[in-house]
Structure formats: structure tokens, C-alpha cells
Amino acid sequence: MNNNNMTTEEFWDKYINEDILEIFDLTCDFFSNELPQEFTDDYDVGEVILETRGHQETAKNFDNVLKFTEIIRRKQPRLYQENFQYFDDFLVDYYYFHQENEKVKPAFVNFRHNPLEDYDEFLSAFNILLFYQYSELLEQVIYENFKGICNSENLIGGAEFDLAECLVNILLQDAYEKDKGDFDQVGYKVKLSEFDLEPNEEGISAAEQGIFKPQLGAEEIKGYFVRHRKNCNGMVKGYFQRYMYERGFEFYLSSRIWNKMLDFCEGKSKSKTQKPDSFFQIGTAAFEKYLAGLSGSMFVDNRSEMMAILWGSVYVFEFLHKFDIITQATFNNFIEVSRKLKGKVIGQLLPDLWNSNFVHCWEKPDCVSEAEFIEEGNIFRKSSSLKYEEFDVMKGKISEELDKIGELADFIIEGGKEEKAPDLPVLDDLFNSPNREFEDYEPDEVVYEPIRTEPKVGRNDPCPCGSGKKYKKCCGKN
Q: pLDDT tens track of the chain, all 478 residues?
């Protein structure tokens, strides 16, 4: 029995039958004391703490999330360790958003020491570090865990790819900063071998040409691109990394953006001998479909990467245009596509934008107006206090920003007013647009999971698989 003389049965009855937000103080009192043995034996304690935390986050009661997290961490340490990923992923997001960087490292410590406990959540939190460019902690996490993740029998092959990509680019940047005019291939290969990574000779050659050698002229690049696209892309990626490095981007971040955009362009390419203008021609429907695939599923929230690639793609095309690798027309087409999709994402994900505010910690692209960048950033910051309401209600709370943001406002309003079918991607309507680019969309390609627009499925909610069972008793068991 706790200090308010409430029995386990009485607490559970309130938890099941009353508004979980209304009984928050009571729940805090209950968990601030030693839990009755019968409660831990006979009831789903994990459900209570996760649902309490989750509902407070959804209601944007972030102070309550922090309060409850601290109570569980101090008073119920075993339960905290069993469920740390559901608390700490919020803390990492929250402290970065509020620029309390000194608190990120302790918030990430459980992921750092237990990456295999929930590898999907670990990667999600890892990506936030990457997008915010928390380089020191990224390096520590990789160096401490890379081999263990590679050798784990509990993960599918290639699970370490994101860490390996980041590591390779950290080592390349170290070499670049040490001596920009030369590349110690032998020393670089030795460092790779320390992590049991096999050197890729073609990749190393392309990196050396792109990062350490003088940049070729536009016409030379275009000709080389047609003849040897794969090698040329590796070289131009190095040019892009150098270009972005001068704008405050670490190699690992610009590499992630470049690689994802190249994956998209290669996936839609019909020929191996295309000129850059054709290869980098972007259709709205195809790019939308690709972004939907990046965003994750109902069970894995990867929207931060979708946001990073959509906002990051502007830098890729700005670079290509600035060095005359693509024409003005191709660049203008992409800017229109990206603005349309950015507006749609902002409109449809308005209350959740704060989780991806890293895009406003990056240097402003030259092709984005100061007003658009500032007001868009203001909308992202305001989203942390926006409740999940009808779009018209939320729109009224960002009306000042919409009045100043320019053309993007129309796309935001259009996106926010669209119906979102629960079993379709958020970025779905442009597939049915009368101006849809059919030549860029292949219906028999990979079928992507839908973007998750709501909070993760609650353990006590009906399972989305349609079995009729509660999630915790069905798919949630795994």
C-alpha cells in the first residue's frame, strides 16, 4: 500500500477506467514508492509506465514526461532499465531541440552501453546524433560498439551499415583535415583494418580523386559521368563533401544525404549512359514515393531520416547547379518539387516537426530566402507546443509565420487540409494528381511501408494487424 492508502486494485481500476492524463499525479505518487509485490506479479507494470509517458508526450506535456521519467529512473531503476529506450529516445530529441547539449550524452548512455537491447531504437537515436552532428559522441559510440554489432548473432547481416558508413567518413575527414593536399592511403587502410573493414579500392580511388585532388571542370565531369557514372558519382560525392565541409557539414552527414539521393536517382534511371541533366531530373511522384519508403512504418519511426533527406536534397542540387553539372531548368524543376513536398510534410506533420529541427541547425541553402528559412524555423519550434488538433486550428497558431513565409505557405495549407488515409503513406495524394509524372513511377517497384503519422501503437491498443487482440498480446510480444 502506498502513501495515499490506495490499494493495487484501486489504482488499476482508475488506470483502466479513468483518463490517464487526469490521474497523472496519482500515478506519480504510486510509482514514487516501493511497488507492492502483487502489482509487479499480477499486473502489466510496463504497460502503465509506457502508456503514462506516451500520453503525456502526445498531449505535449513535456514537463510531465521529464518528471515521470525522473521518478521511474530514481525510484524504479529496474523498470527503467527494462524500458529505457522509450524514455531516452524522447530525452535525446528533447535536449537537442532545446539546445541543452550537455544533457544529450547522459541521455544517450543506455543506448551507448546497450545498443542491442533494441537496435531499431538505437539506430533512430543514433541518427538524431548524426543529423545534429554530435561528432564526439558518435565516434565514441561507433568505436565502442561497432565490432559487437558486426558480430552479433541477433541482428541480420548488414545491420551495421549505417555505423560503417559514418565511420568511413569520419576517417576520411580526419585524413582531409590532416593534409588536404595528399591522401595517405596506407594509413587509411590500416585504420579500416582495425575495425575489420575491407578496403574498397574503387571507392578509395574515387574518394582520393574527389576529396584530395583539384576539382575537374564541368564539361570534363559531364563527359566522365556518361562514360563511367559509378566512378564519377564517387568522385563528385567527394567534391560535394568538400563543398559542404566549408558550410559546416561533417563528411558523414553530407555523405548520408548524397548517398540517399544517389540511391533514388539510380533507382529511377532507365539507362547507364545518361547525361547528368537526365540522371538528376526529379519527378514529384517518384521522389514522394521514395521519401515515403524512408520514413519507416507503424512499428519503426524513421521520419527523421525522411526529413533530413528532403531538406538535405536542396544542398545537393544547389551544388550541382553552382558547378554547372546540371542546367538551370533542371535545378528550377527540383526546387519546385522540393518546395511542394516540404510544404506537404510541414502541413501533414505539423505537431511533430520539432523532432526534426536539426534542419534549422544547418547553414541556410543559398537558394532559400532568408524569410522562408527563418519563418519555417519558427514553425518547427512552435510545433513543440501544438496539440494534435484539426489543421485549421493549428493553422491559426502559425498564421503570422504563414503570412511571411512566401510561396511555401500555399503548399503547407494544401498539405494540412488533405485527408490522410490510415493505411496509406502521408505523401500519397500527389500519386493521384492530374499532373503526376507517370514516367517516374513504377507500380511494380518495391512496395514501401506507410509513414507513421501518429504516436506508436500503445501496448493496450488493438493490434493494427487486425487480429482483434491487444497489441501487447499480439505483434507487440516481439
A: 444 567 899 999 999 999 999 999 999 999 999 999 989 899 999 999 999 999 999 999 999 999 999 999 999 999 999 999 999 999 999 999 999 999 999 999 999 999 999 999 999 999 999 999 999 999 999 999 999 999 998 888 788 999 999 999 999 999 999 877 789 999 999 999 999 998 889 999 999 999 999 999 999 999 999 999 989 999 999 999 999 999 999 999 999 999 999 999 999 888 888 999 999 999 999 999 999 999 987 778 889 999 999 999 999 999 999 999 999 999 999 999 999 999 999 999 999 999 999 999 999 999 999 999 999 999 999 999 999 999 999 999 999 999 999 999 999 999 998 765 444 445 554 333 333 333 343 333 333 333 333 444 555 555 666 554 455 446 665 4
**22-39 CB burial, b ≥16 within 10 A, e <16:** ebbebbbbbbeeebbeeb
Pairwise CA distance, residues 78 & 80, whole Å:
5
From 408, 347, 351, 353, select the one nearest 375 (Cα to Cα). Answer: 408
pTM: 0.86
Q: What's the burial of 248, exposed, middle or buried (CB within 10 Å: 0-12/13-18/19+)?
A: exposed
Angle, helix 161-178 to helix 229-245, in steps of 10 degrees: 60
Phi, psi of 466 (to 5 degrees): 90, 10
